[in-house]
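Troubleshooting entry. The earlier prediction with protoporphyrin IX containing FE gave an output that would not parse, so I re-checked the input for stray whitespace and re-submitted. Clean input:
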Amino acid sequence: MRQFLNERLPLAEFSAHLRKPLPKHINLLFSLGSLATFLLLLQAVTGAFLALYYSPSPEHAHNAVTYISEEVPFGAFVRGLHHWGASAMVIIVFLHLLRVVLYSSYKAPRELTWVVGVLLLLVVLGFGFTGYLLPWDEKAYWATVVGVEIASTAPVLGDFVAKILRGGAEIGAVTLSRFYALHTIWLPWIAFGLVGVHLFLVRYYGSSGKPQNTPEEMKTGKPFYPDQVFEDVVGMLIIFAILASLALFVSVPLEDVADPTNADYDPRPEWYFLFLFQLLKYFQGPFEVLGTFVIPTVGMLLLLFLPFLDRSERAVLWKRPIALTVTSVSVIGIATLTILGASSPKLETQETPQPTEQSQTPTAPETEGVEEGEEVFDFQLTEEETGEEEVFDFQLTEEELE
Ligand code: HEM
């Protein structure tokens, strides 16, 4: 079998390529890219299982998510992995980006690897934004209302983009199926395509190693396979253990079903968008567009073109004072805005109480005289069974049933 494959495929060359030594002093920070790849795959697998039960319509989405969390075997666990995996993905990709900046790995000849990386960052944030709406609860609905409004403030194309996202004048059934399509078809295709290009470029140029590596040291480190692969796999197992523990012991929130008439609801985005949300608060009236569009867009463009703007020699970060200052100010700024956004008094008072079993099921009829914690059974009699024109919904408690 081995000989059969060897005669037909360049397996020997491939194996030799994987066993080539990496630069010396490669540390754990060089595993962050592999961890991001692992998380992307984990999100794809857990998402594929969730999709077996999910239904992207305002009538069914919330019930489907409740059903996954409460009835489907391992449903809460898989949903937990997907939920916490999304946050882990943002953290790991951000740390990976910082590692690349810290070691000047974005500099020539790796400019394209960087540009593709920034596009991947946008795709990861896109996953977060589109996925947030899918449970169709209050926070999902209202955060999307605000998110799409923010998009609409962009000059020239803003209204057009908002309309495309909404699929009409308001957030509704078309928006939900559009976000679902983006989240499960468009973005995964784009993500896997970009990761393919990214990894090809990474292998093509080889690891950049540390900036202080001498030319000899660039070829005298441990081999990628098996040493580096082993370290990467250990990292993946640790991340999986953390995510599995979170999925088992911390329940994923689900608020009341979205109520488009609830104008009192204070919208709140996912934590990794909080810094943008907080930024908006400083720009009111005619200056609003600065917070909603100008600053985020300029920031993103500077990030995208960083390798073409910073043409200095490769060196450790503390020997690059401008890069060090800009990176530190950006990280501290984002962290401060996130903390302010999370702890602002307005946000604290908007905590919606955890929904009861009835309020999670929008179609369930009112239940009177049911003790807390008592199990309730839903029944539905169809027209055929009752001989009447109506369909009857009713509920019986455990006691009544006996
Ligand atoms: C889904 C997101 C991403 C995945 C799956 C991913 C994956 C990887 C992997 C596996 C590596 C090789 C190992 C390593 O150096 O850590 C790598 C290297 C690299 N990544 Fe990413 N990456 C992602 C996002 C980003 C972002 C956001 C940036 C920067 C904006 C970026 C820029 C780079 C660069 C410049 C390298 C080459 C580093 C070197 O040669 O030392 N990547 N990436």
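This one parsed fine. The beta strands are 376-381, 392-397.
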